[in-house]
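Q: Two folds, back to back.
A: First:
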Amino acid sequence: MSSFSILLPAYNEEAGIAVVLDTIHASGFDAEVIVVDDGSTDRTAEIAQSKRIKVLSHAITLGAGKSVKDGIHAATTDRIVMMDSDATYPVEAILLLLAELDAGYNLVVGARQGKEYRGKILKRIARRVFRFLAEFATGKRIPDINSGMRAFRKSEITPYFDVLCDGFSLPTTMTLAYFFTGKKVRYVPISYAKRLGKSKVKIIRDSLRTLQFMTESIAHFNPLKLFLLFALLSVLFGVISMYWMSVLGLLLGVLMGMMILALGIVAESVRGRR
């Protein structure tokens, strides 16, 4: 039996999948390799199958998160390393992540570094917003909220499946779930290369979806923090509105903030009884 599993969700990644699989095979890892083809319309599945590894195929596209969940279910080992199929993540970092996992961490995440990770301005802005929201909600420092390279244990992640999204934002919701439930999370700096093939990310669409899933996750685990943020924004709006409405604007902002905070206390009380 292999000592760990390498999970590769893939959607139209014919340009990179062979490079990733060949690099994994050349490494000599004692690993089970699982590719989950998410309804690709190119040669992704064909290339993966030619490498004589475990390949799962969706008849239609179900989402990157659903691919990860199906791959986890199919894994025959407890230790799992997941990474993308576009050759952006360094295969040589796998053992670094596993070493931290074996040291007692519940989730080990590759924190991406370098020019290719920084990306375009819209992506950097969205990443900063997500990072601020996640760090505010969890009270933890989060260097990379949605890195797709991470190591975890099958036995520990399966209980979270109901709160992990089936789409692009699964890594983000996974990070939040682990932090909110007191798990030990470790970040390991890794290099990040230029992707092979065309990116499937639509920055505005996927950013809005990520924001939705983050809000749902925070509301599930720690609703008071979410309401507190809205209350602070309401007070800030009141301060700004003083320019037009004098002290009345501030009073309205503070009053609304107090009402929102009260709702948050109620929501937190309800959560505590679940």
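A: Second:
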Amino acid sequence: MENFFEKIAPSYTFEIFPPKGNASTAGTYAVIDSLVSFNPDLISVTYGAGGSSRDNTVEITSGIQNKYNVCGVAHLTCVGTTRAELKAILDRLKANNVRNVLALRGDLKDESDLGEFHHASELISFIKEEYGNEFDIFAACYPEKHPESKSVEEDLIHLKEKCDLGVKGLISQLFFDNDIFCEWREKARAMGIKQPIIAGVMPITSAVQISKVVELCGASVPDRVRRFVNAYGHNQGAIKEAGIAYATEQIIDLLTRDVEGIHLYTMNQADTVRRIDAGIRSVLYTKRYALRSDR
């Protein structure tokens, strides 16, 4: 299979989440059936709070890689995990031909939730020490800083440390203001961060979703977004329509600003992806064709 990092930019990638515990994976595979029709370069699979869905993460990522012939990326988190458990997971991924992982600390409710690793950088070091270059490692980045960082500058210092450990690519936390992302990207490049930075976009489909997003990751919400969420109130259909339109425009603008990739947080909503895909496809492939012609 073609290496993800050898593909022509801008890349086009998706994130999905697996069911928790022993729940059936049939619904998730139905979503994947739809998503692969949009020819993504990569599909990442989340890990669940505290690793609650990690077995499903391994299974589904393996299916994406081997059944669908799409690059699968397994999320790995430090929270509540030992070195032995992580090695067992990585061995399973390796046995199933999955060689791409996204190394994360994970959401933390209390310091006691942490296992033998306290930071994503420790997890990255562990993977490199145990497996060398057998895995391509992605890391997360935060255009508006990690919620626990004191400043964007401090956060970039930690990001540079992760990159220097051997990270191959960066996937950004979601954001709604492209100016903020592009200004942050300039600072990252000035710090010497050279890895591809893939821009994370989440379409807003409900009022509840936007409040949860702000609470979890601290993303700022532009006035335009607040206006349509407030204007449509409990009319979820109208909010979804406006959210899809906003995400489509956001992606098209990012492509004009030469982002190296678009990572769509799908929330397992294949129909939402279908509609965004229809709106961006001609722009995305025009951009790819122009870059290919320049080579």
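Q: And?
A: Residues 8-294 form a domain with the TIM Barrel fold (CATH 3.20.20.220).
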